[in-house]
């Protein structure tokens, strides 16, 4: 967990993916699909697409609490990123559950409000529960 967080802070997708097993169970909260099985290559592709949106060296990962139980680790904390090219600083609470076998990450579950984060990256206001309810009611 500590090495993953260190490499994530540095923003180097290639070095992060070295930590993953060839097949990784990934889950990202608020994703349209259910948990999915990804290859190490897909994890690398995701990081290659995500990392360039942030100013390297400006992101921080604050681990408020790290819990370890055998091969499982959970971090509760905050990600803070500076978005290119606007320079806006965005902070988001996060929980990550990693499972490690034979020194490689075999499962990663990321819990973050991705809908609000993407909205903020695009310069829009976060979607509120009231706005979601209004949209659902308009469809019925």
Quick synopsis:
The chain is of the alpha+beta class and 140 residues long.
What does it look like?
With 140 residues, the chain is an alpha+beta fold. The protein is 31% helix and 40% strand. It contains 5 helices and 6 strands. The protein has helices spanning 2-10, 13-17, 40-50, 114-121, 129-139; strands at residues 20-28, 36-39, 60-69, 72-82, 89-101, 104-112. A 6-stranded mixed beta sheet has the order 2-1-6-5-4-3. The longest helix is centred in the N-terminal third of the chain and has 11 residues, at 40-50. The chain is globular, with a radius of gyration of 16 Å. Mean pLDDT is 75; it is low at 33-37.
Layout of strands and helices, then pairs:
Elements (H helix, E strand, L loop, with lengths): L1 H9 L2 H5 L2 E9 L7 E4 H11 L9 E10 L2 E11 L6 E13 L2 E9 L1 H8 L7 H11 L1
Parallel strand pairs: 1-6
Antiparallel strand pairs: 1-2, 3-4, 4-5, 5-6
- The pLDDT mean sits at 75
Count of β-strands: 6
Uncertain runs with pLDDT below 50, 5 residues or more?
A: 33-37
Question: How would you sum up the global shape?
Answer: globular
Q: What is the number of helical segments per DSSP (H or I, 4+ residues)?
A: 5
Helix content: 25-40%
Would you tell me the structural class of the helices and strands?
alpha+beta
Largest sheet: 6 strands, mixed
CA gyration radius, whole angstroms: 16 Å
Beta-strand content estimate: 35-45%
Separation of termini?
45 Å
Strand order of the largest sheet: 2-1-6-5-4-3
H/E element order: HHEEHEEEEHH
What descriptors fit this protein?
140 residues, alpha+beta, six-stranded mixed beta sheet, 6 strands, 40% strand
């Amino acid at each position: 967990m500590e090495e993953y967080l260190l490499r994530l802070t540095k923003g180097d997708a290639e070095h992060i993916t070295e930590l993953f097993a060839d097949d990784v169970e990934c889950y990202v909260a608020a994703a349209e699909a259910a948990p999915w099985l990804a290859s190490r290559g897909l994890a690398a592709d995701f990081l290659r697409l995500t990392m360039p949106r942030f100013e390297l060296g400006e992101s921080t990962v604050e681990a408020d609490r790290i819990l370890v139980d055998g091969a499982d680790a959970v971090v509760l904390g905050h990600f803070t990123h500076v978005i290119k090219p606007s320079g806006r600083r965005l902070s988001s609470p996060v929980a990550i559950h990693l499972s490690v076998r034979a020194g490689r990450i075999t499962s990663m579950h990321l819990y973050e409000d991705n809908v609000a984060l993407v909205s903020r990256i695009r310069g829009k206001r976060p979607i509120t529960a009231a706005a979601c309810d209004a949209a659902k009611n308009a469809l019925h």
